[in-house]
């Protein structure tokens, strides 16, 4: 079973600031509590490895899990959030005002979007497919800690349904789960929070 977790809450999450790859917040107190509850939930799941984005918010979440499970964290830069380029550091409200065309395209046609000085949908799909190839075809139970749009991109890469990109609700420390059966990947849960 693959447990794909979003990182715990940061202050930027509460202000709806787009962190992307340049925003490198640590968890706030609520985020630490979420990560602790997630770690406790995973304690009896026979996890063999923990793999995390190198951005602080995901790595700190993984470290809290690792302390509970007594496992080391493996750094994986491919799990980093999408780069929003020039939009990073802005709130959603500011982006709607200053970058309305890009924001609307991202909401309506994410697959056609490329962020100025950042990544395109094609770029993040390429990373998502690399993650799937490297880690998902296993009989072991592993935890990957990543970010909202990276998780959405992995879901789309598995399902092939880009039109459903915005359907899942991926909250802080939510779990999206996958199983590998006969070289086929099954999505067994999306954005679940049984620990909260």
How is this structure best described in words?
The chain has one domain (2-192): 3-Layer(aba) Sandwich (Rossmann fold). The two termini are 20 Å apart. The longest helix is centred in the middle third of the chain and has 16 residues, at 121-136. Helix 2 (29-42) crosses helix 3, helix 4 packs across helix 5 and helix 6 (121-136) crosses helix 7 (148-159). It is globular. It contains 7 helices and 6 strands; from the N terminus they run E-H-H-E-H-E-H-H-H-E-H-E-E. Helices cover 39% and strands 18% of the residues. Helix 3 links the parallel strand 2 and strand 3. The chain is α/β, with parallel strands linked by helices. A 6-stranded mixed beta sheet has the order 3-2-4-1-5-6, with helices on both faces.
């Amino acid at each position: 079973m693959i447990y794909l977790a979003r990182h715990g809450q940061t202050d930027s999450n509460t202000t709806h600031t787009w962190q992307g790859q340049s925003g490198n917040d640590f968890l706030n107190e609520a985020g630490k509590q979420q990560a602790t509850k997630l770690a406790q939930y995973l304690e009896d799941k026979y996890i063999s490895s923990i793999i995390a984005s190198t951005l602080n918010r995901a790595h700190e979440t993984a470290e809290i899990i690792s302390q509970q499970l007594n496992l080391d964290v493996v750094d994986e830069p491919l799990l980093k959030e999408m780069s929003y380029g020039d939009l990073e550091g802005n709130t959603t409200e500011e982006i709607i005002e200053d970058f309305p065309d890009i924001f609307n395209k991202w909401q309506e046609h994410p697959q056609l979007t490329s962020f100025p000085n950042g990544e395109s949908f094609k770029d993040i799909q390429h990373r998502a497919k690399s993650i799937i190839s490297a880690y998902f075809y296993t009989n072991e139970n592993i935890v990957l800690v990543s970010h909202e749009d990276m998780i959405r991109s992995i879901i789309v890469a598995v399902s092939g349904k880009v039109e459903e990109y915005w359907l899942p609700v991926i909250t802080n420390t939510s779990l999206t789960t996958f199983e590998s059966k006969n070289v086929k990947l099954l999505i067994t849960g999306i954005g679940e929070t049984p620990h909260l």
